Structure formats: C-alpha cells, structure tokens
Prior knowledge:
Blueprint: H1 3-30, H2 39-42, E1 45-48, E2 51-54, E3 59-65, E4 68-73, H3 79-88, E5 95-97, E6 102-105, H4 111-148, H5 153-186
Antiparallel strand pairs: 1-2, 3-4, 4-6, 5-6
Amino acid sequence: MHSEEIDLLLMTSEEAMDKSIEHLNHELAKVRTGKASTNIVNDILVDYYGSKTPMNQVSSVATSDSRTITIQPWEKSMLPVIEKAIFEANLGITPMNDGEMIRLSIPPLTEERRRELVKKVKHLGEEAKIGIRSVRHKAMDGIKKAVKDGYPEDAGKDKEDQVQNMVNKFSKKINALVDAKEKALMTV
C-alpha cells in the first residue's frame, strides 16, 4: 500500500465519520422538544396519486407559533390523504382539519417524557460513536496491513495518530450535538 492509498483510506474514513454526524443530526431533528418544528412531519410520506411523496412536496409546512404546525396542501383533495398519513405516522398528535389546512398542536412535554427523550438522544449519540469507532477500526487495520507490507513504521504510526485525532474530533462533535439537544429537551 502506497502513501496515496493510505491518504485515500484516511479521506474515506473522514467522509464516513461525517456521514455518522449527518445521520445523527437527521435523527436528532426528529426528536421533538415540545416546541413546534416542521422536522416532525418532513419525513412523513403521503400517497400522492399512487406514489409515496414527502409531505413538504405536496404542501406548505410551517409553524404558526411555538406550539402549532400548519400544513397547507397545494390541492384540497390532499387534505384527507395528509391527515391519514399523520395518523399512520403515530406521532401522538391529533391533526385538526378545518377544510382548508391541517393544524397540529404540539402538547407540552411532561417531565417523565423529557427524561425518556434524553435517554433516546444519548442512545442516538452512542450509536453515532459506535459508527465512528467502526470506521477507526477499519482504518487502523488498513494502516497496520500497509506497515506489514512495507510501508514505513513511523509513517504508519503518524497515520494512526491522524485517525485517532479524527475520532476525537468527531466524538467532540457528537457530544456537543447530544448536549445541545438534551439542553433543548430539559428547557421548559
């Protein structure tokens, strides 16, 4: 394995770690904090003339205040379809259809529910760290194999340090994301 191949290995490792952070961000956005956020419904798919389509592609989704999400379909005929999709998504929120738009009132979170959500957030953070450690493991194996195949040992050690520094950097990012979400959840 040449220097270029090891650099490529490090680059792909960093990209994989970035993907772990992206995935964590996506999952954290779905955890509701008791405040209205359009992220709650963005991943809901509605049956749009036979094809599953994201909610925000068939309607205008907005927050009218800190506790209300409004969904204004571009076609009135989509109201019952969107309403059904919200029920099926099992959000624990009952949609209110006034014939023009759908409103979702976000109930305030109980203390117990907040603690459950904090546990979930910590679990999501741990899953992201496991993903990063898995990437580190593969990268370290690749470097060790390269050293065995004649790559200079001191250079291999430097590359291993680079991988560990990457892991440390991404772990800090994960901790910061989890801490921020936990703070948002526990703020009443």
